[in-house]
Structure prediction request, 272 residues.
Amino acid sequence: MLEKIVVKNKSSSNQCIKVEPFRKNIRKTSPHKHNAYLELVFLTKGDGIHGIDFKEYKIQPPQLFIINKEQVHFWDISSEPEGYVLIIKPVSLENHQKSDLIYSIQQLTAFDELQFKNIETLTSLFMLLEKEVKLKENFKLINALLYALLESILFNGTKEDSPLSPSLFQKFISEIEKHNFQYTSIKVLAEALHTTPQNLNIICRKEIQKSASDLLANLVLNEAKRQLIYTSKSSAKIAADLNFSDASHFSKYFKKHTGSTPNQFRLDMTAL
Prediction:
C-alpha cells in the first residue's frame, strides 16, 4: 500500500480556471485526489460507475459530479463519455473575485452529484467558458461566465429529485474544509462564521437531522477513513494530521463513532 494517497494535478500553478472536454479515452482510473482545486465533471453521455470517497455513483447523464479537494475518487466507465471538466482553484480566486462568486463555489462543495433535466443553457455556458479561458483575453468576461455557469448549476441542479437550498449549512461545511477536516471545536467553527454553536445545531438538525458535532465527526472520520484505506500511515500519524491530542484520543473517538478501532477498520477494509 502507498504511504500517501495518489495526487493528480491537471492544472498548472498559475491557472485559476481550466475548462476542457472530458477525455473520451478515460475509462478506468485508480483512486486518487486533487488537493489543490475543485473539479466539476459535467457528463452528457456515458455509462458506468464514479466512486467518490466511500460511495459509488451510477453514471446517469445529464449529470454533474463535484469532486472537492481531498476527496478520493475513481472512474470505471463502460461506454464512450462526453461532457466537460471544469477545474477551479478557490484560493487563487479569492484575491480577484467578488464574494458572490466565492460563495457560489462554496455552495457547490456541499454536494457530490447533481442531476439535470434541461442542459441547453449549461452546455452553452461550458462551451463559451472554454473558449474564453483558452483566449485569456478578457478576465472580467471569464469571471462573469463562470459565475453564470455556477448559478445555473445551483438553480437547475437537483439532488434526489429535490431543488438545492444552499444556506449557512453549506458555509459550515466549507469552514470545516478550510480546517482540512481536522478535529476541532464547534465553538471555533461558529466564531469563524459569526454565529453561535446553538444556531449551527439548529441549522444542522433542520437540514440533516443531526447535530453540528455529529456532522463534524462524520467529515473528520471520512478523512480518517481515506487515510486508513488509501495510505499506509500509522494511526499515530493520522491522529496528528487530524489535530487529535494523541493516538489514544483518536482511537477512542473513532471507535465511539464507528464501532471499531482505526486498526480494525483498516484490516476489515483490506480484507474485502
